[in-house]
Amino acid sequence: MSQPDPNFAAIPANEADVIRELSVEKSVETVRNIPATVFSNLGICCLTFMASPTWVIASGAVYAYALIVFHNALLLRLYMYLRHKPRPRQVRQRTHRLSAFVSLLGGAAWAVFILLVLASSPTDVALLISIFTVATSIGALVISPSSPAISLAFGLPILTAFAFGAGAFGHFSPVLAAMVWITAMVGVPGFAVTNSRTAWDRARLHVQIAEERAERLAMMEQLSERLGKYISPQLYQSIFVGTQKVEVAAQRKKLTVLFSDIVGFTTITERLESEELTALLNQYLTEMSEIVLQHGGTLDKFIGDAVVVYFGDTDDGRTAQENAISCVQMALAMRARVSKLRQAWREQGLDDTLDLRIGINTGFCTVGNFGSDQRMDYTIIGSEVNLAARLEAAAEAGGILLAQETHALVKGVIQTEPAGTVTAKGFSRPVETYRVVGVADGTCALDQSASVTFAKDPAQMTPLEMEAARSTLEQAMRRLEN
Question: What percent of the residues of the chain are helix, what percent strand, and what percent coil, each to the nearest 5?
Answer without folding.
Answer: 65, 15, 20
